[in-house]
Amino acid sequence: MKKISLAFLLLLFLVSLGTFGYIYIEGFSFLESLYMTVITISTVGFQELRPLSWQGKLFTIFLIIGSVGIFAYAVTIIGNFLIEGHLTFISRRKKMQKQLEFLKKHYIICGINRVAKEAI
Questions:
Q1: What's the number of CA atoms in the CB half-sphere (13 Å) around residue 85?
Q2: Residue 40 contacts by C-beta under 8 Å, 6 or more apart in sequence?
Q3: pLDDT tens, position by position, for the chain (120 residues)?
Q4: How many other β-carbons are positioned within 10 Å of the β-carbon of residue 8?
Q5: Residue ranges of domains in the chain
Q6: Is the CATH number 1.10.3210.10 carried by domain 2-119?
Q7: Distance CA 78, CA 15 (A)
Q8: Other C-beta atoms within 10 Å of 17: how many?
Q9: pTM for the structure as a whole
Q10: Going by C-beta distance under 8 Å and a sequence separation of 6 or more, which residues neighbour residue 57?
C-alpha cells in the first residue's frame, strides 16, 4: 500500500511541478499549463498551445526526462496492485471452492453438549 501511495504522490508532484512551471515560465493559464503538462508527461505528442520560449523548451525537456521514469514507475506499481489484487482474490476463491467440495454431507459442530454428543 505504501508503494501505491508513493506512486500517486510522485504523479501528483510531477503534474503540480509541470503545471506551475508552465504558469511561471510561460505565463499560461492554469488550464493551459495543466494541459501542456499532461500531454508532455503522457507522451501524447500534441503540438504546444503556442510557441515556447527557450526557457519553456528547456523546462519541457527536463519535464519529459523526469516524467518518463516517474510515469513508468507509477503505472507499473498501480498496474501490479490492480492485477495482483484481482488475481489473489480469484485464486483464494478457487481454493475455497475446492475445499468446500470436500465438505458435502458433513456437519460442523460448535460446542459440546448432550445433543452434540448424540450427533457424533
A1: 8
A2: 18, 60, 63, 64, 67
A3: 688 788 889 989 999 999 999 999 999 999 999 999 999 888 787 777 888 999 999 999 999 998 988 888 888 888 887 787 766 777 788 888 887 777 777 777 777 888 777 777
A4: 13
A5: 2-119
A6: no
A7: 17
A8: 16
A9: 0.63
A10: none
